[in-house]
Design brief:
It is globular, with a radius of gyration of 23 Å. The chain is 74% helix and 4% strand. A hairpin with a 6-residue loop joins β3 and β4. It is built from 16 helices and 4 strands. A 4-stranded mixed β-sheet has the order 1-2-4-3, with helices on both faces. 35% of the residues are buried. The chain is mainly alpha-helical and 419 residues long. Bound molecules: zinc ion (ZN). The site of zinc ion has 4 residues, from α10 and α13.
Length: 419
């Protein structure tokens, strides 16, 4: 069989494995609460709060969708015309057109063009956040964060680009196989090092101060059978008033982090509800599950890029002879951008199911649905989240169940526990 035949076979096997992994690992059997219960929860929220949140979300929406649209147009313009391949050549020219210069500088230049063209929308977003009192960092802090995120992306991007084009040179016929393995490894590695190498770039993260709340949270983790070395606090208040918490990392780098804003705004019972939700993620291994499906997806993407990218009409449009050249990187980026937009709703759906399971875990662990509901109300009020967002937006990109879904789930728990 030819390398192409093997690639088709590999793609089919990887595709089936991703589907199977998603079917087995994602808790599909937990549908959202009935719509009538959600609407009842919505009616119980203060009207001014709901209106203000909707006004805020409406103010963000045009810029958000415009950035998405412009990002797509730029990616297509660079990838499906010779413009992108010329940009890669130009970036490599000061170094005699050496392939490493084209691969790294050319690749980063293409990404930077797309970033710069969507920059006005990012600035607009920050101005809206500031106007509504959510952003606390001012334009200086915003710019520093932006430069830091460019720097982090540039380092990761440079490693990935150099690795990818080195593999292509070493194995011109079978690069897609090594590339797929490399992409999967990179996803796992990133998930592992993220808390240790990337999070500290943006936030100071320190162990929670000793006190009654910390003791209670450690007891909660202990009761849950989730070994946690410490509850960590991020100094998020330096850029936002929004409250949040998360788990990240896998194996020895796994950690539960709460925003300092959460400790400032919420009652101890509400903080317990949040931490119990995060412990649910840790106990059910949601980060490894997302990492594994992400790694399989990345491997499948490399094989798919090899197959789609060798379609002659596409190569002609991009003005390149082969998808294996650094000059064809803009074409690959265009395909990845389209795939990202297509797969966003699927990822969001999977994320919502994992989040709903973590909510159920929090309710069962704390046995305190009142605190859980109070926490949902507070998060929605402080973060100006639309408690019941437009259906199309929810289906396209919501990574969490809506506030009214979560409140309805807490009330269902109360009813079931009362029986
Ligand atoms: Zn969560």
């Amino acid at each position: 069989m030819s390398p192409r035949g093997w690639a088709v076979l590999t793609l089919v096997v990887l595709g089936l494995t991703v589907v199977l992994a998603a079917l087995v690992l994602i808790p599909w059997q937990r549908p959202p609460a009935p719509r009538a219960d959600q609407l009842a929860a919505l009616r119980d929220l203060p009207t001014e709060q709901v209106e203000r949140a909707r006004e805020f979300r409406a103010a963000l929406r045009p810029g958000g969708w415009a950035a998405l649209g412009i990002g797509l147009l730029v990616a297509l313009a660079l990838g499906l015309t010779p413009l992108g391949s010329r940009l890669v050549e130009l970036a490599g020219r000061p170094f005699g057109g050496h392939w490493t210069a084209q691969a790294i500088l050319g690749g980063l230049a293409v990404v930077l063009v797309a970033d710069l063209l969507t920059l006005p929308f990012a600035a607009w977003r920050h101005s809206v956040l500031t106007r509504y009192g959510l952003a606390t960092n001012g334009w200086g802090g915003w710019a520093v964060d932006l430069l830091k995120s460019y720097a982090v992306s540039a380092v990761i991007g440079a490693v990935a680009l150099l690795g990818f084009y080195t593999v292509i040179r070493l194995a011109p016929r079978w690069w897609w196989a090594f590339g797929a393995a490399g992409a999967a490894t990179l996803v796992v590695l990133l998930s592992f090092v993220l808390p240790v190498l990337v999070e500290p770039v943006f936030n100071r993260i320190s162990p929670m101060e000793p006190g009654p709340l910390r003791t209670e949270l450690m007891e909660l983790a202990d009761r849950d059978g989730v070994p946690v070395r410490d509850v960590l606090v991020a100094d998020a208040s330096r850029r936002t008033n929004a409250v949040n918490a998360y788990v990240s990392g896998i194996g020895p780098t796994r950690r539960v982090v709460v925003y300092d804003t959460l400790l400032r705004e919420a009652t101890p019972a509400e903080v317990k509800a949040v931490v119990a939700h995060e412990l649910g993620h840790a106990r059910d291994r949601d980060v490894p599950i997302f990492t594994l499906t992400g790694a399989l997806g990345a491997a499948a993407a490399v094989v798919a890029l090899y197959l789609i990218g060798s379609w002659p009409p596409l190569l002609r449009m991009a003005g390149v002879d082969s998808v294996a050249q650094p000059r064809a990187f803009p074409l690959l980026l265009a395909l990845v951008t389209v795939a990202g937009l297509v797969f966003t709703p699927m990822q969001a759906l999977m994320s919502r199911r994992l989040e709903a399971r973590a909510d159920a875990h929090a309710l069962a662990l704390t046995g305190d649905p009142a605190a859980f509901e109070a926490m949902q109300r507070r998060i929605s009020s402080v973060n100006l989240g639309d408690p019941d967002p437009p259906r199309w937006e929810y289906l396209y990109s919501a990574t969490h169940p809506s506030t009214v879904e979560r409140i309805a789930a807490a009330r269902a728990y109360t009813r079931e526990a009362g029986r």
